[in-house]
Amino acid sequence: MISLVVVGLGILSMVMWGYTYSIDFVGGTNLEYQLDKNLTKEQVKSFFADYKLGVDSSFIDNNILYLRLKPMSDKKEAELKQDLEKNFNIKINTLRFETLGPLIGKETIKKTITASILAIIGILLYMTFAFRNFNFAAAAIAALGHDFLVVVGSYSIISNFFSAELDLLFVTALLTTMSFSVHDTIVIFDKIREYGTADKSSIEIYANKALTETMVRSVNNSMTILFMLLALLILGGSTIKYFIAVLLIGTITGTYSSPFVATPFLVWLEKSKNQK
């Protein structure tokens, strides 16, 4: 029920709101300007209302002006900076200027999808080879799919309510979460295989035994990661906070899915096979 609720809410969010994509995927320009005096939001909006640069979004916080624009050249950026300084009689220090064309954004999407597919295929082949049983691989992939839906669904909610952009850092966190999920699952499955080889009783018995013996280890391992991530989330910079948030969600989800998704699914597959 927990999985159904969380995954259901995530899918609903993806359908209704989708994501706010960074320039990594759609192209554009990100600018951060440090100003020597404060400007109001109204002044910034009024300036860019008459400026023909295709400004997607702008906001100012603690004398730092954040801008999201259409792709622009170095020359255009220099002109914009000069016009701002002249119009508001201020001095500007450029903190960030990054730009990507739409073609590069599309190429990034293709590479991201390809990397995810290759990771899943690699895990499936490895699990099948390592355990000499396709059911182990299928159960691990089922848990992996569960974790994937939880993370991408949760990030859609974060993107809608906190304006978090879906960027390459999110992809990095997602792939890291997938590997962490399988790592925990392999530990439990290895115990199940070990007990199953020596004991021909019902699979529920040695699956429960494996879970009992590995649960404390899994929780303790995850807690050390959670403490580190929480510290980074609270004290880290704004540029990595959503990356850390995704890792945090992924760590909790991966710890949960190994005993409560992967293992029950494996038991069901093995019982179905034995009944044939």
Spell out the blueprint of helices and strands:
Blueprint: H1 2-16, E1 20-21, H2 23-26, E2 28-35, H3 41-49, E3 55-61, E4 64-69, H4 74-88, E5 92-100, H5 102-131, H6 134-162, E6 165-166, H7 168-198, H8 203-235, H9 241-275
Helix pairs in contact: 1-6, 5-6, 5-7, 6-7, 6-9, 7-8, 7-9, 8-9
Summarize this, please?
This protein has 276 residues and is an alpha+beta fold. It contains nine helices and six strands.
Helical segment count: 9
The major β-sheet equals:
4 strands, antiparallel
When the domains are counted, the total is 2
Uncertain residue segments: none
The name of the CATH architecture of the largest domain is Up-down Bundle
Order of strands, widest sheet:
3-4-2-5
Radius of gyration: 24 Å
Distance between the termini: 29 Å
Beta-strand share of residues: 5-15%
CATH class of the largest domain: Mainly Alpha
Query: What best-fitting shape do the alpha-carbon axes yield?
Result: elongated
Which class of secondary structure composition applies to the elements?
Answer: alpha+beta
**What is the helix fraction of residues, given as a range?**
over 70%
> CATH-wise, what's the superfamily of the largest domain?
Multidrug efflux transporter AcrB transmembrane domain
Mean pLDDT: 86
CATH domain topology of the largest domain: Multidrug efflux transporter AcrB transmembrane fold
Sketch the topology as an H/E string, one letter per element. Answer: HEHEHEEHEHHEHHH
